[in-house]
């Protein structure tokens, strides 16, 4: 059965991680995979996570199965973190939340659920979008179309072109939006743009699908959730796929969640039963440990404060590195304007350099980034920023 198989291309981001690991040069810099790094280049376990784990170790009493939706307390706390405590969608019991294996698990379960509701529906994704969106959504049977999003020359959102494309969408089509910290461009919708796209989706009967994997790593937890909260307050139905990988640093524990907003509490009950059936058909129940950590942190005043402080340090470090990289490039006397790096949000920006220059950075300077020129800003540090800036200057001259 397997003898006719051919090898498929690897995930370009994860395979770059492997190349970086094999590189023995001591000055190597990893700007590839989107994980947060501290000044020393480590991705540490957050202190609040460690403290919550210690509590769990002594207080956890059973390892029996949890249900298909995961932990009810996790689901309640995470919905509050996403939407805010007093959101009408929560008060009106119009949402169903389920703990999932990472944001990827949430994306796939939402896609399966949507395919179950309306087989073969069309999802509009931004051009460009995160590479994994394509297999995660299309493998569930959804059709993909793209709307223009990022202008690589002007370094800004192509908002008019995006709106014109979405005007062509048919009633019932799905629109995938990044809640904040757009991966890969770092260019986010502003408030007026969120209002306008919400109005368009309402008017045309489109279903909003928001992927939020970086809440708290842009401007702050509430600021980064502006779009999700606004859309949820104005539309009858929407779906959300969220991740705790970055903002809790729980990557390998696989913690995420999905939210389905329905038009009424009665419809939410039915939607919930459909979501659980979907989950049952795939993995039955999510892993517990990571979500138990999140729920412990969000249920404790002191652990929550500790986590918020740590998250603030992370987002301030990223925003500081954005300013420093722009400044360091200016000091190299480059002709290009890199001020867009300062305006963009989250871990990623496109440097806007070509493949040859990217390869030269990797081979000659041991600086790694994905082929699109997307860099993970969090991979910079005061110890390497001059080196990175001078190397970029060398290859773009
Ligand atoms: N969505 C986006 C845009 C991402 O960048 C990520 C990245 O890690 C995810 C979803 C899902 O992440 P995970 O499955 O690791 O929680
Ligand atoms: O875009 C990134 O770098 C992160 C991490 O298959 C990631 O979102 C990359 C590839 C992948 C899963 C996660």
Structural features, described:
This protein is α/β, with parallel strands linked by helices and 397 residues long. It folds into two domains: 12-44 and 316-392, Alpha-Beta Complex (Aspartate Aminotransferase, domain 1), CATH 3.90.1150; 65-299, 3-Layer(aba) Sandwich (Aspartate Aminotransferase, domain 2). It contains 16 helices and 13 strands. The protein has helices at residues 12-22, 47-59, 72-83, 88-91, 102-117, 133-138, 159-167, 191-204, 221-224, 226-234, 265-282, 289-298, 301-331, 340-343, 355-365, 385-396, and strands at residues 29-30, 95-100, 122-127, 143-148, 150-151, 156-157, 174-178, 207-212, 238-243, 256-261, 348-350, 367-368, 374-376. A seven-stranded mixed β-sheet has the order 2-10-9-8-7-3-4, with helices on both faces. Strands 1-12 form a two-stranded parallel ribbon. Strand 3 (122-127), helix 6 and strand 4 form a beta-alpha-beta unit. Helix 2 runs antiparallel to helix 13, helix 5 crosses helix 11 (265-282) and helix 13 (301-331) packs across helix 16. The protein is globular and about 60 Å long. Residues 11, 13-14, 33-34, 130, 132, 183 line the site of (2S)-2-hydroxy-3-(4-hydroxyphenyl)propanoic acid.
């Amino acid at each position: 059965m397997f003898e006719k198989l051919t090898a498929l291309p690897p995930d370009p981001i994860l395979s770059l991680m492997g190349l970086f690991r094999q590189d023995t040069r001591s000055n190597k810099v990893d700007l590839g995979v989107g994980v947060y790094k501290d000044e020393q280049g480590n991705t540490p376990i957050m202190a609040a996570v460690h403290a919550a784990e210690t509590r769990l170790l002594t207080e956890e009493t059973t390892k029996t199965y949890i249900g298909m939706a995961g932990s009810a307390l996790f689901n309640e706390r995470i919905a509050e973190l996403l939407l805010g405590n007093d959101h009408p969608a929560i008060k009106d019991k119009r949402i169903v939340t389920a703990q999932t294996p990472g944001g990827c698990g949430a994306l796939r379960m939402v896609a399966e659920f949507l395919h179950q509701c309306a087989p073969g529906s069309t999802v509009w994704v931004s051009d460009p979008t995160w590479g994994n969106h394509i297999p995660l959504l299309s493998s569930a049977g959804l059709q993909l179309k793209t709307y223009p999003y990022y202008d690589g020359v002007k370094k800004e959102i192509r908002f008019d072109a995006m709106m014109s494309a979405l005007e062509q969408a048919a009633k019932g089509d799905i629109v995938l939006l990044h809640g904040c910290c757009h991966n890969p461009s770092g260019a986010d919708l502003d408030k007026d743009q969120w209002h306008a796209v919400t109005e368009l989706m309402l008017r045309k009967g489109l279903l909003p699908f928001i992927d939020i994997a970086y809440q708290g790593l842009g401007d702050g937890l509430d600021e980064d959730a502006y779009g999700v909260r606004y859309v949820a307050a104005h539309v009858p139905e929407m779906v959300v796929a969220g991740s705790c990988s970055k903002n809790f640093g729980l990557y390998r524990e696989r913690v995420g969640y999905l939210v389905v907003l329905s038009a009424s509490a009665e419809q939410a009950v039915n939607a919930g039963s459909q979501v659980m059936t979907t989950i049952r058909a795939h993995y039955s129940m999510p892993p517990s440990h990571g979500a138990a950590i999140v729920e412990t942190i969000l249920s404790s005043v002191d652990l929550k404060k500790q986590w918020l402080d740590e998250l603030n340090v992370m987002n301030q470090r990223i925003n500081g590195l954005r300013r420093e990289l722009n400044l360091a490039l200016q000091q190299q006397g480059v002709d290009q304007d890199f001020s867009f790096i300062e305006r963009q949000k989250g871990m990623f920006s496109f440097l806007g350099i070509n493949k040859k220059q990217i390869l030269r950075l990797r081979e000659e300077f041991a600086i790694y980034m994905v082929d699109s020129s997307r860099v993970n800003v969090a991979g910079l540090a005061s110890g390497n920023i001059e080196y990175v800036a001078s190397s970029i200057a060398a290859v773009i001259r």
